[in-house]
Design a protein that fits this description.
This protein is mainly α. The protein has one domain (2-217). Helix content is 78%, strand content 0%. The chain has 10 helices and no strands. Helix 1 packs antiparallel against helix 5 and helix 3 runs parallel beside helix 6. The protein is globular and about 45 Å long.
Length: 219
């Protein structure tokens, strides 16, 4: 029981660190540079721009029908883990990142920083066999239903659709270029971390979070 609790606490700690990076990517950089990253976070940003509703709550609402649609294809264990990550990620988008300062950088550098921060966050979450839902769920489900499609093809279709939509919403054609740059940097960062993972995620988290929490989450 003690080990299970520590394992769960360690997963939550990694979720929090990964969600922090993702929230910085979306709220600190992409939101203020008027471009949308791909996927559900990008759609959440677009709907926030149009309605003013909080990004995290929009992302969570968009994830619910997707969750019901794909549940039977992905398995209970993976979905349960991902729901935990989804909720934490939404909380960081709405209740943490909004208090962070913005940085006066060009849109080009905002796209680069946004891609790097998101890549780090997603990679940390993927390394513990979880996801933030949304596009991840759709990509994996389409792959199971249509195995002839590659993950790369599915990802490009989904992300490309959101990025193109952002150009019309923001009424700026260069929003497409910045969205594509974000996607490229994001994928490079994820691939690098996934191919060179930390030896121990708990040790990595231990360097980032305070010592009292470190003692609790490390096995």
């Amino acid at each position: 029981m003690q080990y299970s609790f520590r394992k769960f606490a360690s997963q939550v700690a990694v979720d929090c660190v990964g969600s922090f990076f993702i929230a910085v990517s979306v709220v600190v950089f992409a939101l203020h540079a008027d471009f949308a990253p791909g996927g559900i976070n990008g759609m959440g940003l677009i709907l926030h721009y149009l309605t003013g509703f909080p990004i995290g709550k929009i992302v969570l609402a968009l994830n619910l029908p997707i969750l019901l649609l794909v549940f039977k294809y992905l398995g209970k264990a993976f979905v349960a883990k991902s729901v935990k990550t989804m909720i934490i990620s939404s909380l960081f988008l709405d209740h943490v990142a909004i208090y962070l300062p913005t940085f006066p950088v060009s849109r080009l550098m905002a796209a680069v920083f946004s891609g790097v921060f998101a890549g780090i966050g997603f990679a940390l979450i993927y390394l513990q066999d979880s996801s933030t839902g949304g596009s991840d769920f759709l990509i994996l489900t389409v792959k199971k239903v249509r195995p002839t499609f590659s993950i790369g093809q599915i990802t490009r279709i989904l992300d490309g659709s959101v990025i193109l939509l952002a150009a019309f919403v923001f009424r700026q054609i260069d929003a497409v270029a910045y969205g594509l740059l974000y996607t490229f940097i994001n994928s490079l960062t994820i691939d690098f971390i996934m191919n060179h993972p930390p030896v121990n995620l708990g040790a990595l988290v231990g360097r980032i979070i305070p010592q009292p929490i470190r003692r609790m989450v490390q096995p």
